[in-house]
Amino acid sequence: MNSSKSPGLAGFGILKNTTCHTEKKISVFFSIIFMTVGILSNSLAIAILMKAYQRFRQKSKASFLLLASGLVVTDLFGHLINGAIAVFVYASDKDWIRFNQSNILCSVFGICMVFFGLCPLFTKPIFHSTKMTSKHVKMMLTMVCLFAVLIALLPILRFRAYQIQASRTWCFYKTEHVEDWEDRFYLLLFSCLGLLALAISFLCNAVTGITLLRVKFKSQQRQGRSHHFEMIIQLLAIMCVSCICWSPFLV
């Protein structure tokens, strides 16, 4: 009786192992694809922005391009670092017990997820501060990065470890069986800050769009009009992508 069942069990085991191996390869493949697309698109955007920054020396446009470059650079490093860790996790068959015994990798992954998530969101509302000098823009970007680092390090400073999420592919604040007020605070803080940044960006874009429509019908200076329309088109494109990607997760 045992011998009659052995071939079937062996075949099932082989099929299961083959399926798991195939799923692992597909997961790693898609992770690499997403990471590569993000890196290439952001690298292309950086090249275009740097070329435009060298070409245009007007204060308003230079400040705008510097802000845009800061946004793209943080997004680039987010894809590079988070993508590399995700590929490693998939390639290791999500066996966190084997490569994360001291929880260091999960903590680094969680910090990067929070930092590279908040940094681009915080940068969007200050796109409209185009009258700032380059020095002020650099100071503003530095303050944004430091604030995002502080939010990302809050759990570590409070001796709260980042948690492996249900899919076992990434780390973040504790999101399951949240009973402690502090764990709930971190989640609400991240969501509220992100939604606030999106709301302010949306409001700024709405005000700018209305202003440009008025200028279009009143002003005859085509050069200034095209300059501002180029900026608003870029802002609206970034805003649409941000809302589609972030709003469901933040809500």
TrEMBL record:
Membrane-protein topology: Multi-pass membrane protein
Keyword annotations: Cell membrane, Disulfide bond, G-protein coupled receptor, Glycoprotein, Membrane, Receptor, Transducer, Transmembrane, Transmembrane helix
Claim: Glycoprotein is one of the keywords in the record: yes
One GO cellular component, as annotated: plasma membrane
A biological process from GO: positive regulation of cytosolic calcium ion concentration
Start and end residues of each G-protein coupled receptors family 1 profile domain: 41-251
InterPro entries associated with the record: GPCR_Rhodpsn (IPR000276), GPCR_Rhodpsn_7TM (IPR017452), PglndnF_rcpt (IPR000141), Prostanoid_rcpt (IPR008365), Prostglndn_DP_rcpt (IPR001244)
Alphabetized GO MF terms: prostaglandin F receptor activity
TM segment ranges: 26-50, 62-90, 102-127, 139-157, 185-210, 231-249
Compartment(s) of residence: Cell membrane
Phosphoprotein found in the keyword field: no
Protein known as: Prostaglandin F2-alpha receptor
Organism annotation: Gavia stellata (Red-throated diver)
